């Protein structure tokens, strides 16, 4: 690993095998070994090879005693390949996160279109009334002010919609405590026009005032992904009286969120693969929504996600 022979290693001090920035860590490591009877510890340290290259490694130390004498057994492992694999995995995850956000933004644009359709029609009607009333002279000042106020109120609603979507996609703050009920209502408000367009009802059976301490926006993203999936299945299969049911219960040790629909369930052959990247049962699907949901829940939120 270092390029030194065994005889050469015996002549070297620990500081000669490591770059300068590791000196303090090495000193602490040696002190712990001297003081720790029965110590077993794994330490991450960089080594310096005979050629001057840096090699990342892990050292596992075991301190034992025999005949009242202490012995240290140290095993060093080159972890270059493992770190390279982990880096590649992180890069792939980041790419999938980016793709997932792009796909979610596409869905959000569709939701904004549904959210704005009615307000735009309303504003068009107001302006038409103002124009006709002004041209024909049958509208008075008070009525005109009422119509203008109504138009401004509708525009404020549309502006709030943009703020809601912008906040939804902004990076999560550090871990924060928030009310799950409020987060769920926010998600439903974003997708509700799209659900209404497809005639889908949402039934919620939720305990009041359940709080969670984690990344709020990422948690909301998972809820949105799952509800979007249910919406897609219900609309594609043209289910009569389509509905999505959301149940949230809180116990002493965990909070359970169950999201179900009456879309006919998941095909048995697909069940084991639905959380795999790029696996999808939809012709136009990308297969990254549920995969990213699993990553968020298990890695970031430290929970579990399953499908039945």
Global outline: elongated
What value does the average pLDDT take? 81
For this structure, what is the CATH homologous superfamily of the largest domain?
Answer: Histidine kinase-like ATPase, C-terminal domain
Q: What is the multimeric organization of the chains shown?
A: single chain
| Largest beta-sheet characterization | 3 strands, antiparallel
Question: Can you give a write-up of this model?
Answer:
Strand 7 and strand 8 form a beta hairpin. The protein has two domains: 6-78, 2-Layer Sandwich (Beta-Lactamase); 87-109 and 172-300, Heat Shock Protein 90. It has helices spanning 6-11, 23-35, 80-136, 141-169, 180-197, 216-236, 268-271, 289-300, and strands at 40-48, 54-66, 69-78, 176-179, 201-206, 211-214, 243-250, 255-261. It contains eight helices and eight strands, in the order H-H-E-E-E-H-H-E-H-E-E-H-E-E-H-H. The longest helix has 57 residues, at 80-136. The strands form three sheets. A three-stranded antiparallel beta sheet has the order 1-2-3. Strands 5-7-8 form a three-stranded mixed beta sheet, with helices on one face. A two-stranded antiparallel sheet has the order 4-6. The radius of gyration is 30 Å and the shape is elongated. The protein has 308 residues and is of the alpha+beta class. 15% of the residues are buried. It is 52% helix and 20% strand.
């Amino acid at each position: 690993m270092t390029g030194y022979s065994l005889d050469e290693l015996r002549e070297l001090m620990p500081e000669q095998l490591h770059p300068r920035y590791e000196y303090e860590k090495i000193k602490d490591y040696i002190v712990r070994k001297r003081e720790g009877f029965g110590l077993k510890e794994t330490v991450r340290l960089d080594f310096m090879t005979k050629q001057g290259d840096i090699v990342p490694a892990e050292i596992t130390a075991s301190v034992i005693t025999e005949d009242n004498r202490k012995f240290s057994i140290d095993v060093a492992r080159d972890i270059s390949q493992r770190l390279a694999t982990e880096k590649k995995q992180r890069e792939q995850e980041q790419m999938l996160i980016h793709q997932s956000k792009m796909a979610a933004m596409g869905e959000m644009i569709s939701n904004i279109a549904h959210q704005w359709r009615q307000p735009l029609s309303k504003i068009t009607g107001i302006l038409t009334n103002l124009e006709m009333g002004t041209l024909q002279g049958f509208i008075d000042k008070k009525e005109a002010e009422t119509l203008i106020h109504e138009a401004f109120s509708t525009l404020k609603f549309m502006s709030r919609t943009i703020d809601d979507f912008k906040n939804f996609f902004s990076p999560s703050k550090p871990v924060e405590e928030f009310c799950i009920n409020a987060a769920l209502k926010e998600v439903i408000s974003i997708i509700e026009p799209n659900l209404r367009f497809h005639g889908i009802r949402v039934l919620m059976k939720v305990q009041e005032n359940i709080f969670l301490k984690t990344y709020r926006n990422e948690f909301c993203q998972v809820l949105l992904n799952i509800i979007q999936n249910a919406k897609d299945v219900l609309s594609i299969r043209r289910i009569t009286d389509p509905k999505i049911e959301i149940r949230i219960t809180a116990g002493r040790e965990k909070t359970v969120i169950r999201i179900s629909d009456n879309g006919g369930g998941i095909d048995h052959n697909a069940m084991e693969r639905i959380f795999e990247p790029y696996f999808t049962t939809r012709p136009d699907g990308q297969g990254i929504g549920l995969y990213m949901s699993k990553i968020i829940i298990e890695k970031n939120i430290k929970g579990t996600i399953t499908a039945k």
